[in-house]
What we know:
The complex is a heterotrimer. By secondary structure, chain B is an alpha+beta fold.
Amino acid sequence: MASARLREPAGVRWTLRVITIAYVFLLVVWPVSLVVKYTFEDGLTALSTSLSDPAVTTALRLTALVAVTSVILNLVFGVGISLLLVRYEFPGKRILSALIDLPLSVSPVVVGLALLLVFNPRTGLFGPGLSAAGIEVIFASPGMIMATVFVALPLVIREVVPVLEEIGDEQEQASRSLGANAVQTFRRITLPSIKWAVVYGVVLSLARSLGEYGAVKVVSGNIVEQTQTATLVVESKYQGFEQSTAYATAFLLAAASVICIIVVSILRPKESS
Amino acid sequence: MSIEIKDINKKFGDFVALEDVSLNIPTGQLTALLGPSGGGKSTLLRIIAGLESTDEGTVHIEGVEATHLPPQKRNVGFVFQHYAAFKHMSVAKNVAFGLEIRKRSKAETKKRVEELLELVHLSQFSHRLPSQLSGGQRQRMALARALAVEPTVLLLDEPFGALDAKVRKELREWLRRLHDEVHVTTVFVTHDQEEALEVSDEIVVINEGRIEQIGSPDQLYDAPANDFVMSFLGPVTKLQNKLIRPHDIDVFTSGEVAGAVPGEVVRLLRVGFEVRLTVRPSGADTGHELAAPGDADEVTVILTRSHARELRLDVGSRVWLAPNRGATMVPVIRVVSSA
Amino acid sequence: MSQAVISGGRPARKRRSARPGSLTIVSGLGLGVALVWFSLLVLIPLAMVVATSGEDGWEGFWGTLTNSQTLSAVRLTVVQAFLVTLLNVVMGTMIAWVLVRDRFPGKRILDVVIDIPFALPTIVAGLVLLSLYGPQSPLGVDVANTRISVFMALAFVTLPFIVRTVQPVLEELEADVEEASASLGANRLTTFRRIILPSLVPAIAAGAALSFARGISEYGSLVLLSGNLPNRTEVASVRVLTYIENGDAASAATVATLMLVVALFVIVALDLIQRRVARRG
Lengths: 273, 339, 281
């Protein structure tokens, strides 16, 4: 940090502080706290009502299943792709690297549409074939999992790649020179060194996967008690004038995602001065 | 007097950076602040520049009280160890920055920038970005930039620290020649005694927040005020519990000289035209309090090759050591490492 | 790789960048598997979208795009995303500045709060904003079903982007450059304008690109809040959904392709910015 002598005048500092805090308060803090307030307006009744509603519990279970599966898939492929991008050279590497970021910029509805066009059991590209083999993708869990994997795809990779680049491969080279094969090197040397990046990536993917809405809506058909995830339940309860259940479910989802970012924030070492 | 510093005290938390430092730097002189890392010299320089505040004491620049002036108002030029180049601006724009701040006319700015780039031999790089220059070139640009606004004082903080040894030597000489041409009061910070001895008119030795000695390079080398200054400015070794320069020791192959310290050569090293002897003194008459054998007792002597050959010295030779007539000797007070 | 938009994800600082090796059999296999995975999940589906948009020929394609309702939706989407991005450029930079340069109790909490819009499910985001700015607003402010609600929802979900791209750059800024500027006579405002801001521009641009892309593609937060009123508060993604629900795959794909083109532009822009920054050193 530059010398303490070079600070902005106190007036400027305070103005920036106030504007920033006010903006974030009005846009984020107050609205979120209201959801908490509405959820607990009548004590725990809103929560208990929701949790005894089969639509909600099925949805929560489905969300958990879809999210955890997606996270695991993204973890495995994410770490693999990160290693490939950093440690190896191959034609088209730069394009692949740029395309990895695509899911962050694509609309979830477009994601849903894309999967629909490919896996639709009647008119899709692979859909009819898979359907004949008994595999239902659209309006079923596999499709929802794929949609969720799509939207959270870059998250693990973007955490792991910078760390892999920064630590360099000298340790891995040393390991090889001492006789370890690729798997041993990966297990004993590489994996421990990217441990934290993987954790951050997993937690962030989890938050994203729990919260996916648009893509899953298109792909699942939004069928109550069958293919409704928690996010879809929030919408249908609200539209169905069951406000408190909607708020309660929203609260559960919000709490889960906030816990995720708090965990990451606590685990991540403070790097600023 | 260009810069008058009085009773400066500065602490960073519990750490005392500067203690009761007072100093006067004459106008037009090239002064070095020399000392080990963490000794306080950079802090002092930054206090002069206004980049650091002082807890107590005053700073006057050309008679004007500057203690509470922000750096913008002090008209000092500052050159940083890592160049502090404005990366998104060309060399010419970097140098022109100070003039543009002072709202000089475009024509005047252009002329002055050209002048300075010529002075530092960077004219053909005026449109390049700093990232396209070598370290030495970037530092020359930084100097031009600092000089552009005709500062009252030029301050350099370890200006050659980030450069290769060869470039460092070149720029050292170049700085001296520049100063002879431009004559602006210059203060630079270094931990390299060779640099200070080579370049400056006067050296201020600073250690642990205090000034150890002020003087010309010759004065400091020949008449050091204490053991710290002596050991910092050149090679030293201990003989009869006093610090002495290794090349100021006479070697005799017989014991006829009164007061000479007897000993045995335990190591002989030829480095170029020098021969370095390590001599372990023997007998009670060594003047050391503790007779424990160890490196601290061993004396380093430096001779020319021809002299060593004359004396037929080798490992195991018995020798007698005595200080040269007129050799500088300083009693040991603090712990010191020999050459 | 473009700058991370994750809570505090740090961009790569190549310290010991080893030269990447060529593929071995194992890694070659791994690459093959990864490519199949990526194609199946991302490339083929997206390609299908582009292909399907041409199903009804050029007339169908153009007809969909010029349909008045679609045009309104696209125009609304682009304009709102653009305005929100402008707002974010100012506020995002300001927030990043306060987070890096200022010190006050509770700053850490502010840092975590910034990530909430990124982690929160979009439908929940809509509900959240509805609480304060909808019919039951304690503030008395009701913007539900208006254009302003679209602006607000986008501002909410895009909040973290510029903050998180600018923050690491601000933290890495060399102190001595600001000191040099001061020693040359520049006051704080001038130093900010001429020295600090230029070095932030690539990070701001990267964040702006991400913010714009997200704004264009946003869906979930608008469902409850904006009412999706045709020609008033309907955005492009809602148009796509309507076409899907009506079984009009080609039209849905057409609008979707338009949105994909924008996303692609953003990716390219990010890549170019990355390379320009690397050149400047």
